[in-house]
Design a protein that fits this description.
heterodimer; A: 271 residues; mainly alpha; MetI-like fold; 13 helices; 0% strand; B: 295 residues; two-stranded antiparallel ribbon; globular
């Protein structure tokens, strides 16, 4: 065995510290959620599941959970459904129109969250359709559109055009080519885009609050309201639930797709 | 000959544009309704007349923009920009080496880190702010450790203060920047740094003199990303900071939600976005293109 150089040790120390920094808040919230004390204290003294029972037994928290899941699944489906044809046309026809559309779609993602929130609160106010759950879903779909747009563009670019040509020479029609080449190549990217928007929408606070916060209490809104009103251990349970969903979704993604490639790595990676 | 080609191509071109129109109609309608209309509305509202009770009526006046010229608002904007710039510097100093090291790991370690970072990225700002509140409270681990090490005389909470705001903001943007730099960093050629070290440069020297200049574009763009995000941050300065460390984001949403003055909030938003667009143009000049991540 060769001895690692100081540079390697420095690198390991750096990455360990970074991991600790990223993990710290997660560990603290998880620890507090399993503590039996009503006080916000860490490290936990006695292990208990009281707050989990309280959380799942509380109709208010359950209403919020349902609203949040409805909004995020709608937002994910809408934004991917809109982004898919744009990315497809940009790739297949090298269409200028679709490039403009992609630019518009990605634009909101680059605007500050507060600006978008004010914008949508004004928008829904003018339409007269105020305080509905679908308002939040549509707003989220528009804001997070940039993610499916760029992920799907990367996906389409990764399809070998030679393969399409080959399929055509061998007599495959447009539909066949779609079924045999495009669909299998795109599936992981579509799932990744859905998951990404789902998780971001689930965690978004400000837009949801300004658009329909007074009628639809999503989980982040309820957690924040609780936080302001004073500490309550059940909110830690909600927080743990969030983290678990996020990590499960991205782990799942890592098992079904090539995550480094999905994240934009182009060079093949040795094992 | 060329005529024949043109003739043969014509129906294809027609079919193509028809196919395109069919595919792009729905997305175009959606984007016009939910992206372009709200922006136009926001601009129009910034010139509207503010009525009492959170209402406004259409019109064209410059009241709001005149109100923005006051020194308080300008001080808030410049403070926010300063805070954003410092956050950007700190974040990049951590994220750049992190992305570089991750991209050089074995596949399994790399996937694990990506899941970890994506997981952290997806966490709600609400949760992170809350977790930092627990972490920095007077009964939290950090304070306990400091007291045990005799670095703090009596336990007292580490927030609200500016340091807490910066740490939390860095935490929030760090995953974004790591993932943003990841594709560019993983594309970096090994040959140049290798050549540098063969010629006797130390790893640190190689990193700063060879690798960093190659990454200028992505580094500058990611700094811009951090600034956009931080300038308008809302929850973090509100919870972990004092009123004098509130950002434009906090002031803007207070104008909209608490004061109910939508036209003024709209004008503040327009000014903020104009400033950001100016910044991006500047960045384009400085950094040039570079690869960007699907983030």
């Amino acid at each position: 065995m060769t001895r690692a150089s100081p540079a390697i040790w420095a690198q390991r120390a750096f990455m360990t510290l970074l991991a600790a920094f990223i993990a710290a808040p997660l560990v603290v919230v998880t620890g507090v959620s399993f503590n039996d004390s009503r006080r916000m204290s860490f490290p936990p003294t006695h292990f208990s599941l009281t707050w989990y029972k309280d959380f799942f037994g509380d109709p208010d928290w359950m209403t919020s959970l349902k609203a949040t899941l409805t909004i995020s699944s709608m937002a994910a489906l809408i934004s991917v459904a809109i982004a898919l044809p744009i990315a497809y046309a940009a790739w297949r026809y090298r269409s200028r129109v679709s490039k403009v559309l992609a630019g518009v779609g990605a634009g909101l993602f680059l605007l500050p969250g507060v600006v978008v929130a004010v914008m949508f609160s004004a928008f829904w106010g003018v339409t007269g359709h105020v305080g509905h759950i679908e308002n939040v879903a549509f707003s989220h779909a528009a804001v997070f559109m940039g993610i499916p747009l760029s992920l799907l563009a990367v996906g389409f670019e990764s399809i070998d055009r030679g393969l399409l040509e080959a399929a055509k020479t061998m007599g495959a029609g447009e539909a066949d080519a779609f079924r045999m080449v495009i669909r299998p190549a795109m599936t992981p990217y579509i799932i990744c885009a859905l998951a990404y928007v789902f998780v971001l929408s689930m965690n978004e606070y400000l837009i949801a609050y300004m658009v329909a916060g007074f009628t639809v209490q999503t989980l982040p809104i309820r957690i924040f309201t609780n936080m302001r009103a004073g500490y309550e251990p059940t909110m830690c349970v909600a927080a743990v639930l969030f983290m678990a969903v996020g990590f499960c979704i991205f782990s799942l993604l890592a098992t079904i797709g090539d995550l480094p490639k999905l994240m934009g790595r182009q060079r093949p990676l040795r094992n | 000959m060329s005529e024949a080609v043109a003739l043969a191509a014509e129906p294809y071109a027609k079919r193509r544009s028809f196919g395109q129109a069919l595919i792009l109609a729905a997305p175009a309608i959606f984007l016009a309704a939910f992206c372009i209309t709200p922006i136009i509305l926001l601009i129009q509202m910034s010139f509207a007349h503010h009525d009492d009770g959170g209402l406004w009526s259409p019109g064209f006046e410059l009241t709001q923009y005149k109100a923005l010229a006051d020194p308080v608002f300008l001080r808030v904007v410049s403070f926010s920009l300063l805070l954003a710039a410092s956050t950007a510097v700190v974040t990049i100093c951590i994220a750049f080496p992190a992305a570089y090291f991750i991209s050089r790991m074995r596949r399994r370690a790399q996937v694990a880190w990506l899941v970890f970072v994506l997981g952290a990225l997806s966490l709600s700002e609400v949760l992170i702010v809350f977790a930092f509140q627990v972490l920095l409270s007077s009964s939290g681990v950090v304070v306990k450790t400091l007291v045990d090490l005799h670095l703090m005389a009596t336990p007292h909470s580490l927030y609200p203060n500016l340091g807490a705001v910066v740490i939390c903001l860095v935490y929030l943007v760090l995953p974004y920047v790591i993932l943003f730099l990841y594709p560019a960093v993983s594309q970096l050629d090994e040959e140049m740094p290798q050549a540098a070290s063969t010629m006797g440069a130390s790893p640190l020297r190689t990193f700063f003199l060879v690798t960093t200049p190659l990454m200028r574009g992505p580094l500058v763009s990611s700094a811009a990303l951090v600034v956009i995000f931080t300038v308008s941050s809302y929850l973090t300065p509100l919870v972990l900071g004092r009123p004098e460390t509130w950002t434009v984001g906090v002031h803007l949403s207070n104008t909209a939600m608490d004061a109910g003055d939508m036209p003024l909030a709209a004008a503040q938003a327009v000014v903020l976005v104009t400033a950001i667009i100016g910044l991006l143009a500047l960045v384009r000049r400085l950094g040039g293109g570079g690869r960007t991540a699907p983030v």
